[in-house]
Amino acid sequence: MSAAGGKTPQIGTIDTLSSAVLPGSARMAGMNTTPDTALLVVNLGTPESPTAPAVRRYLAEFLSDRRVVAIPPLFWKPLLYGVILPIRGPKSAEKYAKVWLPDGSPLAVYTRRLAEGLKDVMPDWQVEWAMRYGEPALRKTLDGLRARGIRRIVVLPLYPQYSTTTTASIQDVVDAWRPSAPEVEVSVIQDYCEDAGWVAAIADSIRAHWQAHGRSEKLMFSFHGLPQRVANAGDPYPQQCERSAQAIVAALGLGADDWQMGYQSRFGAERWLQPYAEPTLWALAEGGVRSFDLVCPGFATDCLETLEEVALGFAETLAERGATLSYIPCLNAAPPHAQALAALARRA
User: Fold this and answer.
1) What is the DSSP letter of 21?
2) Do 151 and 36 form a contact (C-beta atoms < 8 A)?
3) Hey, what domains does the chain have and what are their CATH numbers?
4) How far apart are CA 60 and CA 81, in angstroms?
5) pLDDT in tens, 315-330
6) What is the pTM of this model?
């Protein structure tokens, strides 16, 4: 896909930092004992391959979670298996194929690399990674840590902002697992939407992008969407997204006219959190803004929604309106990300 003027949509270079793990000298030399405390970072999940069968299996698990879709199973299951999966499986597989990496799904690759970076800065802890949906499965990973003699586990959902549709679902699995391991102390970090280390890492990644690629006219913050009814029921997610954006803006010293925020990845016909990110970009472009930088602070690692929907899709529709989009990658496995999350875990 091409941007306005035939230019390729610009994607930043933080991933070159992300692929590098921290120096081995950070490891504790001569350690003779196995740590009995573990950090378990948990991401959403991903198909095992960019194929229709694999995507259908993943979506079946994801969309069967009552935290994600609250429709009673008696009504939802026939619709899911009879209509949604047969249609969305092949379509989503095509999208995954556009962004699939040689080592696998971007979300899995970057989550694994992040865990490797965390091991380097936390030599006195064991560090593992898991997925809420798909593999490596969260419950099996918890079982594995227990079998290795771990007696304290800090679970860190890789969702900076809390939602009942994401963080609470991980909490559900942990709570269901607790009775099987009464000797293990386990806690779940609920959010880190304004954590100083995380905010600084995001702000620094934006500055680095500007230094490498130049600064566009407007900075757009795009967060994953949420049905409005969930927010109306008291979910704190939209307020936490706003607090994250404001904290990053303050760290960058931006003015009110320098930035905008919106929500992406709407699914279904019901009303979701607004403003919707893509139409907001369109309106700004039609109003005369010709260049945008876009960052997704709700995503710890790049994935289908950031790479295919935003970096490719948003860029293409903006090009049709005479504007360009420069995508700023997620923190992924960049060392400042690992350092910020390690500090967060140690305080838990």
Assistant:
1) P
2) yes
3) 4-16+194-328 (3.40.50.1400), 52-99 (no CATH)
4) 8
5) 999 999 999 999 999 9
6) 0.90
